[in-house]
Amino acid sequence: MKFYLGLFLMMTLLVSCANNNWRTASRESAGMAADPVMHKEAVIEVYAADAFSWRGWFAVHSWIAVKDKDAAEYTVFEVVGWRINSGLPALLQYQTSTPDRFWYGAQPQKLLSIQGDKAAVLIPKIVDAVSRYPWANEYTVFPGPNSNTFPAWIALQVPELELVLPFSAIGSGYAD
After folding, report:
1. Does residue 137 belong to any structural domain of this protein?
2. What is the pLDDT of residue 18?
3. Residue 53: how many CB atoms within 10 A of its CB?
């Protein structure tokens, strides 16, 4: 009986910790990215936010955003597992003025920011590496490839980024 009571309490806690407003919050900027219309320089930024629901206690989801000089929007590259179930590639690329959006209600952290001439030189290298990402059509939560494997692999291809992912970037070691 104690086991079932404990299990019930744990499930209740897990469900109550889920952000029920993630659909709205996922569209909002965290206010960390430079406005692409006002900020004309080239920009590279890497973000990570707690994974969805209870998984955020242990892991983050990470993504890469780039903006060419004078571009009006950022290009965001990320890997999303649910796309596989829909018959789509896990690797997603889209244009946005808010690359620092909340991830299922979780506020992102900026892991890396490079601006100006260095960013302008590295962006083509990143785009080339994205086109060669070997697991674009695969996703496995553990050990990978997953959303953290992607930026880790890009970092190996473009070492000048000097990108260091957090310990909670589960799956980043898959790229080694």
Report:
1. yes
2. 46
3. 16
